[in-house]
Amino acid sequence: MTKQRLSKVLASAGIASRRACEALIFEGKVSVNGEIATLPQTLVSLDADDIRIESRRIKTVEEKVYYILNKPRNYVCSNKVLGRKKLVIELFPESHRLFTVGRLDRDTTGLLIVTNDGHFAQKIIHPSANIEKEYLVKVNAHITHDHLVAVARGGMVEGGFVKPVRVAKVRKGTLKVIVKEGRKREVRVLVEKAGLEIRELTRIRIGGLHLGPLSEGDYRPLTAAEKEAIIN
Fold first, then answer.
1. What is the pLDDT along the chain (232 residues), one digit of tens a residue?
2. Which residues contact 8 (CB under 8 A, 6 or more apart)?
């Protein structure tokens, strides 16, 4: 069996996205043949090597699954137990080790992709993917031209400059914001910096995949065409 990078093997096994797998390695949680692995580029094979995460052995690759979820409010995008906080993955009853592709903060609802395919996730969240994410923002104010200009101007988020692809008023009290960056809470930060108080923030599109009529808290499998639409 041809050996591959440790981070790639973990992602292929459905552990998490490749970036998240690299973080597990750097945190000292991954061992190969009884020794703590420190480098994501370590060459390994699931067939030839004993690979473990915190003593749990990683075995053959399980069937890949892909879901679209309308994330409800007050759910957290994490695989770690966080006290009494509700986790998105707890909405799924399956035995697959699932994780979210990217994140929506606790108060944000809408389109979220959930899978066990690390390679697929990496294609979407990597900065070079340049994939649009569209949000509807309901605010507690009359939206003026100055508000729209302020949001469209962009600003600093997590130490980097973020500028939306498009900002538009949809109807009274609601605006649309389209971004390509994946910085934490970027839409919320830009809208609040413009002087608007957010009532509801919902993601309705990733690439060519639209949320559609899916009710909050519901999910369904992605079709092959929808998977392609996200990245093409």
1. 678 899 988 988 878 888 889 999 999 999 999 999 999 999 998 888 999 998 888 876 678 899 999 999 999 998 877 778 899 999 998 756 789 999 999 999 999 999 988 889 989 988 888 899 999 999 999 999 999 999 999 999 988 899 999 999 999 999 999 999 878 899 999 999 999 999 999 999 999 999 999 999 999 999 999 999 998 7
2. 18, 119
User: Which has the closest alpha carbon to 131: 229, 213, 220, 16?
Assistant: 229
Active site residues: 105
Please classify residue 74 by burial: count the beta carbons closer than 10 Å to its beta carbon, then call 0-12 exposed, 13-18 middle and 19+ buried.
exposed
Residue ranges and CATH numbers for the domains of the chain are: 4-57 (3.10.290.10), 66-127+211-231 (3.30.70.580), 132-206 (3.30.70.1560)
